[in-house]
């Protein structure tokens, strides 16, 4: 049997090349996703600012929840908070009492000087020893109007001791540079103020962001027991220094897992279709084997070994290609700010090995499923079955198709009830895939019904149209194999693209309709500047807006903090219940989506954890409708600003703003936020779209190349090359139309449910963009049909008819 396997692979290189390409791409995609997932699970961030402190103490950056399950089993969960957790300055005394030496406290707050590397933070000079920073020139800052800048910031802005420069922060001002450090950090700029000035600008009286020391971690942890402080050593100091990197690492787990799972499902679907087409093309060969006494087990074993051979060749190569693909993804995510520059990929043997094994298993399973019916037919029926495909689907396939169809309908109903993007996104992709799998299983029936409709207009064209209609009608199974990947590509592409436009358009509309102010200044306007605008002539009302993320239980909710004076002239949240005018630092307004999810109404108390980990219990005073445009929760500005890293925000201005204040539109701010999130999803899911596009070309090229003998017979019968190309063009047009209709139906069903759950309305599908998706599929189909057909017709018809099958 092994000799037959090797001989088959050797003489059917073109057919197996398609399966090889599909498996290679699948392994590469799964490997890249596995590297992202592995990085999220085991990735670490090297400390920069805290590199000189063996022990670092910070606030707890997680919200914790403990549940007692059945049989007394305790389950503990922790989720990262959105802002930096602060510590009481008195915690430093406990650290000293534990025998620690060189105890240094630090405050960190946003502060920028013109151009510089990455993020820019202000600190007190006493914390320079944590790195350590030393002076290259000048002296340490001693007065409120003095600063020291790091070497990179000085070089980028042409600064030296004695220069005057403006520093943007929560309280911007002009400062004199008294010194420049020898050192600079790779991923952040450091601006040092005097100790008193830094603590004033940080805005957290009596609090510090970190404590550095030399001593025993166990002793220090014991001294801090009962507080919200956490102790870090070694590589863990990087997580303490870069809480944003830790949040990104957690997001990478969900992104890598969701993307990898989707990629694997798509890969199985594509590879199954490729092997199904390959087995269909070999039905006469397999029938001959059955007729000469080959048992069904031997036939399945032969096809399984062929798949194993292809998988063993494609899996490792694809896994190797997945590593540079993972690095490419890392660079793209870094460019969009979704992945911090100091979180490096974890490259271990596990993702490539897992990807190679997954490709091999998928190959063998797909091949055996594809060969199941062919291997089970009786020998006396084998040749007849090979010559004429069965008119009806098998009972098992029909039952499986109907079952998946029902599952897709259930998923669609579930999707219509999901109101958060985190919950809806994976279900959205799974729903589109379920509809596509149902189409693949019921493909021959759908193909025959579609051909019956399209045959009428095709026969209006002489010769080419008649031939196309006849071929499509006689090859329903082959047509179904070709339609499936094109339907998958169209449906997935439209779902991915227009899920973003659906939420983005709704958010932009809500933000635009709800912003009554004529002008919006931002995005980082300090409170002092907002006060100056408020006092300017011609300004009738000013609303300061700061944004963050809070946790209710362990779930994330977007929140905005607003000043309430004149709010009715700048902002309309579409209040449905209660009164937004009652909003104060002890109360909260919630969107209709959040109210439904959290089961709260005006008068109820909502317990939450603010961005820096501070718990709060707030009275619900209003429920509003425009949650997508303004966030699910709204609180008083002073409450939220005291618990965020950067209290600067946007300013809504009613009236005429003073000259020199840069303004933007509310729609542009909403579009920027939506596009930033969308671009990350586009890059991640674009790989799957690219994979399905490769599958479309692969399947169509295999199908066309296998028809060399058929095309030669047509030429011997008197058909010209032009007539044959017109025939193939008609077939391709029919395939594109059928796949376009099916893919559009899948996308619309999925997006309608997605829109109902997320926005309460319908999907946003730009017609020209959707036509572009279908046109792209048509272009791929045309290229994948025309090129193999021309190659197949290069040989003389008589030679092609007599060639080995």
From TrEMBL:
Domain ABC3 transporter permease C-terminal residues, every copy: 260-378, 683-795
Transmembrane segments: 252-277, 307-329, 349-371, 399-420, 432-458, 479-499, 682-701, 732-755, 767-787
Subcellular location field: Cell membrane
The keyword Transcription appears for this protein: no
Domain of life of the native organism: Bacteria
Family, similarity comment: Belongs to the ABC-4 integral membrane protein family.
Protein name: ABC transporter permease
Protein source organism: Actinomadura nitritigenes
């Amino acid at each position: 049997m092994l000799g037959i396997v090797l001989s088959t692979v050797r003489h059917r290189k073109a057919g197996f090349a398609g399966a090889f390409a599909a498996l290679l791409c699948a392994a590469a995609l799964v490997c890249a996703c596995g590297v992202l997932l592995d990085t999220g699970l085991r990735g670490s961030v090297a400390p920069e600012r805290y590199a000189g402190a063996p022990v670092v103490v910070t606030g707890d950056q997680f919200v914790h929840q403990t549940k007692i399950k059945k049989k007394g089993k305790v389950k503990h969960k922790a989720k990262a908070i959105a802002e930096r957790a602060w510590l009481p300055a008195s915690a430093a005394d406990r650290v000293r009492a534990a025998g620690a030496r060189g105890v240094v406290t630090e405050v960190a707050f946003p502060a920028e000087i013109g151009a510089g590397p990455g993020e820019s933070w202000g600190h007190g000079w006493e914390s320079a020893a944590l790195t350590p920073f030393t002076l290259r020139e000048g002296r340490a800052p001693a007065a409120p109007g003095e600063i020291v800048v790091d070497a990179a910031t000085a070089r980028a802005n042409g600064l030296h001791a004695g220069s005057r420069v403006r520093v943007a922060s929560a309280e911007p001002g002009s400062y004199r540079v008294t010194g420049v450090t020898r050192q600079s950090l790779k991923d952040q700029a450091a601006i040092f103020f005097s100790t008193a000035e830094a603590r004033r600008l940080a805005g957290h009286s009596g609090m510090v962001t970190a404590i550095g020391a030399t001593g025993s971690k166990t002793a220090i942890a014991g001294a801090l027991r009962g507080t919200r402080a956490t102790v870090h050593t070694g590589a863990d100091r990087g997580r303490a220094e870069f809480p944003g990197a830790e949040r990104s690492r957690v997001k990478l787990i969900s992104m890598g897992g969701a993307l990898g799972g989707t990629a694997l499902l798509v890969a199985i679907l594509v590879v199954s279709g490729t092997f199904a087409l390959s087995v269909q093309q070999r039905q006469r060969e397999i029938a001959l084997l059955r007729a000469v006494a080959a048992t069904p087990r031997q036939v399945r074993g032969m096809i399984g070994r062929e798949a194993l051979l292809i998988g063993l060749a494609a899996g490792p190569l694809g896994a190797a290609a997945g590593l540079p693909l993972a690095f490419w993804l890392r660079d793209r995510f870094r460019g969009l700010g979704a992945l911090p520059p100091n979180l490096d990929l974890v490259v271990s043997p596990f993702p490539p090995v897992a990807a190679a094994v997954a490709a091999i298993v998928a190959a063998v399973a797909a091949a055996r499923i594809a060969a199941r019916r062919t291997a089970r037919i009786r020998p006396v029926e084998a040749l007849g079955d090979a010559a004429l495909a069965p008119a009806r689907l098998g009972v098992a396939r029909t039952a499986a198709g109907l079952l998946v169809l029902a599952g897709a309908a259930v998923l669609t109903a579930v999707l219509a009830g999901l109101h958060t993007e985190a919950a809806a996104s994976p279900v959205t992709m799974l729903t589109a895939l379920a509809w596509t799998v149902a189409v693949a299983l019921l493909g021959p029936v759908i193909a025959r019904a579609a051909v019956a409709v399209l045959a009428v207009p095709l026969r209006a064209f002489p010769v080419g149209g008649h031939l196309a209609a006849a071929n499509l009608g006689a090859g329903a199974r082959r047509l179904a194999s070709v339609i499936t990947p094109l339907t998958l590509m169209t449906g997935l592409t439209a779902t991915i693209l227009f899920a973003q436009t659906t939420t983005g358009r709704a958010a932009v509309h809500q933000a635009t309709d709800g912003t009554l102010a004529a002008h919006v200044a931002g995005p980082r306007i300090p409170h002092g500047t907002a006060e100056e605008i408020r006092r300017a002539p011609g300004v009738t009302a000013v609303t300061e807006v700061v944004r963050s993320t809070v946790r209710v239980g362990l779930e994330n909710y977007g929140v905005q903090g607003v000043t309430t004076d004149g709010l009715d002239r700048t902002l309309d949240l579409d209040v449905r219940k209660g009164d937004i005018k009652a909003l104060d630092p002890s109360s909260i307004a919630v969107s209709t989506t959040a109210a439904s999810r959290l089961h709260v109404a005006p008068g109820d108390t909502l317990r939450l954890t603010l961005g820096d980990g501070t718990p709060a219990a707030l009275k619900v005073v209003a429920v509003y409708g425009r949650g997508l445009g303004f966030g699910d929760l709204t609180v008083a500005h002073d409450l939220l600003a005291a618990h965020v890293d950067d209290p600067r925000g946007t300013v809504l201005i009613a009236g005429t703003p003073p000259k020199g204040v840069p303004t933007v539109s509310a729609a542009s701010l909403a579009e920027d936020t939506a596009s930033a999130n969308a671009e990350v999803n586009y890059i991640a899911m674009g790989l799957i779209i690219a994979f399905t596009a490769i599958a479309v070309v692969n399947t169509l090229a295999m199908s066309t190349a296998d028809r060399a003998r058929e095309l030669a017979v047509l030429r011997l019968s008197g058909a010209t090359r032009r007539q044959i190309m017109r025939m193939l063009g008609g077939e391709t047009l029919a395939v594109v139309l059928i796949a376009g209709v099916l893919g559009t139906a899948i996308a619309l069903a999925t997006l309608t449910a997605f829109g109902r759950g997320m926005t309460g309305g319908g999907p946003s599908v730009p017609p020209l963009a959707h036509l572009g998706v279908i046109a792209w599929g048509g272009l791929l189909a045309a290229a994948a049909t025309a090129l193999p057909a021309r190659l197949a017709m290069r040989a003389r018809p008589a030679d092609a008819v007599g060639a080995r099958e």
